[in-house]
Automatic annotation (TrEMBL):
<protein>
    <recommendedName>
        <fullName>Probable nicotinate-nucleotide adenylyltransferase</fullName>
        <ecNumber>2.7.7.18</ecNumber>
    </recommendedName>
</protein>
<dbReference type="GO" id="GO:0009435">
    <property type="term" value="P:NAD+ biosynthetic process"/>
</dbReference>
<dbReference type="Pfam" id="PF01467">
    <property type="entry name" value="CTP_transf_like"/>
</dbReference>
<dbReference type="InterPro" id="IPR005248">
    <property type="entry name" value="NadD/NMNAT"/>
</dbReference>
<comment type="pathway">
    <text>Cofactor biosynthesis; NAD(+) biosynthesis; deamido-NAD(+) from nicotinate D-ribonucleotide: step 1/1.</text>
</comment>
<keyword id="KW-0520">NAD</keyword>
<keyword id="KW-0547">Nucleotide-binding</keyword>
<keyword id="KW-0067">ATP-binding</keyword>
<feature type="domain" description="Cytidyltransferase-like">
    <location>
        <begin position="54"/>
        <end position="216"/>
    </location>
</feature>
<dbReference type="InterPro" id="IPR004821">
    <property type="entry name" value="Cyt_trans-like"/>
</dbReference>
<comment type="similarity">
    <text>Belongs to the NadD family.</text>
</comment>
<dbReference type="GO" id="GO:0005524">
    <property type="term" value="F:ATP binding"/>
</dbReference>
<keyword id="KW-0662">Pyridine nucleotide biosynthesis</keyword>
<dbReference type="GO" id="GO:0004515">
    <property type="term" value="F:nicotinate-nucleotide adenylyltransferase activity"/>
</dbReference>
<keyword id="KW-0548">Nucleotidyltransferase</keyword>
<comment type="function">
    <text>Catalyzes the reversible adenylation of nicotinate mononucleotide (NaMN) to nicotinic acid adenine dinucleotide (NaAD).</text>
</comment>
<dbReference type="InterPro" id="IPR014729">
    <property type="entry name" value="Rossmann-like_a/b/a_fold"/>
</dbReference>
């Protein structure tokens, strides 16, 4: 008959083994839980955080080139969402004729309504004063603190990026993606920005321009297939651009 001491030692040995086994199981479960919390993208990739594009612009009017650019960047960078942000008072267009913000906002809503990955934000329109990119990024960061942000802009605008307000603070808020039309070459090494902070990708449909669309509209020329159908109808219904002596921007 085993002594009391032997029984105690056997029980203690079993308990230790059980605890070690449970610890291993718990560790595996925790690893699985952490993996489950990561974001699986539409293409099946797993990301630590949601990936969100921010496409700022005057959108006067928004056109198919903007939409194709957003769609292409979303594909290349595996974005979960692209937020379109119509500017309120564009800092570089203070001396230009710019259509009413509400009209530009509504046209952007109409243009993006059919794509579930596209949303529209009023942060710039509702903020008083001149629109600065740094304020847009800070506002979106506050709204989406868990997201990895990608700011989408025209590659030509990137040439002046270090002149933007609080430029040195932008790199910690978002990765910058410059979109360009075919034949437009840009060397990101010449921008004097941190390594890896800016990419440039070519978008064929960017041969379309808002300036040309406004000009065609003011002359009564067709803009079908340059902008989404709903935007054509909005421009026609509200008589946008007909009486404006728009200058190139």
């Amino acid at each position: 008959m085993a002594s009391t001491t032997e029984k105690t030692e056997k029980v203690h040995t079993v308990d230790t083994a059980d605890m070690r086994s449970m610890s291993q199981i718990t560790s595996r479960l925790n690893d699985s839980s952490r993996l489950a919390l990561k974001k699986r993208s539409k293409r099946g990739r797993i990301h630590e955080h949601p990936r969100v594009g921010i496409m700022g612009g005057t959108f006067d009017p928004i056109h198919n080139g903007h939409l194709v650019a957003a769609s292409e960047v979303a594909w290349v960078y595996d974005l979960d969402e692209v937020i379109f942000v119509p500017t309120g008072r564009p800092v570089f267009k203070q001396n230009k004729v710019v259509t009413n913000p509400e009209d530009r906002y509504l046209m952007t809503v109409i243009a993006t309504a059919s794509n579930p990955s596209f949303t529209v934000s009023r942060v710039d329109i509702d903020r008083p004063g001149i629109t600065y990119t740094i304020d847009t990024l800070r506002d979106i960061r506050t709204m989406r603190p868990d997201a990895e942000l990608f700011f989408i802009t025209g590659a030509d605008a990137l040439a002046e990026i270090m002149r933007w307000k609080d430029a040195d603070d932008m790199w910690s808020l978002a990765h910058f993606v410059g979109v360009t039309r075919p034949g437009y070459a840009m060397d990101t090494n010449s921008l004097n920005v941190p390594d890896g902070a800016v990419d440039v990708i070519e978008i064929p449909a960017l041969a379309i321009s808002s300036t040309d669309i406004r000009r065609r509209s003011s002359r009564g020329e067709p803009v079908w297939y340059l902008v989404p159908d709903g935007v054509v109808q909005y421009i026609t219904k509200h008589g946008l651009y007909l009486s404006q002596a728009q200058e190139s921007v």
